[in-house]
Amino acid sequence: MPDLKPSANHSPAWVVQTWLSFLLSVGGLTLGIFYLPVEPWVKAYMGMGTAFAVGSTISLSKTLRDIHEAKQLTARIDEAKVEKLLADHHPLR
User: Fold this and answer.
1) Cβ of 58: how many Cβ atoms within 10 Å?
2) CA dist 36 to 5, 26, 32, 58, Å?
3) Alpha helices of 1-93 — where are they, by DSSP H?
4) 4 within some domain
5) pTM, whole model, 2 decimals?
6) Would you state the pLDDT for residue 9?
7) Distance between CA atoms of 20 and 93, rounded to whole angstroms?
8) Residue 30 domain-assigned?
9) What is the maximum span of the chain, computed from C-alpha positions, in angstroms?
10) What is the per-residue pLDDT across 33-84, written as a single tens digit (0 to 9) for each?
């Protein structure tokens, strides 16, 4: 039986690139907010907004990934049921 599990292996270079991209973008935004020539409450508001935006983005990406994986699992289960049904009712057997 063929392996129905999809391969999701990422290369180490891709993992490093994604982490560096994330850290540089959040770090640059944090430094930009820190050095803004505005009152501290404005900096705090922007920092809080940034923290919530990053957190909700991570939650959204995990949720979308989980939905996608659940659909793949459901499709594999349905495919296995159809294969079993066809095998049980094969006309030449």
Assistant:
1) 11
2) 49, 15, 6, 26
3) 12-34, 40-88
4) no
5) 0.63
6) 83
7) 59
8) yes
9) 81
10) 999 999 999 999 999 999 999 999 999 999 999 888 888 878 888 888 888 8
The dihedral built from the CA positions of residue 60, 66, 69 and 74, taken in this order, carries a sign that is: negative
Torsion of CA 51, 56, 58, 61, to 10 degrees: -160
Count the domains in the chain.
1
One-letter amino acid of 67 = I
Q: How many CB atoms lie within 10 A of CB 33?
A: 17
The CA angle 7-9-11, to the nearest 5 degrees, is 145
Task: Give the integer Cα–Cα distance in Å for 1 and 23.
Answer: 43
Name which of 27, 33, 32, 31 is nearest 48 in CA terms: 33
CA 84 → CA 46, 58, 71, distances in Å? 57, 39, 20
Q: Give the domain extent around 60.
A: 12-88
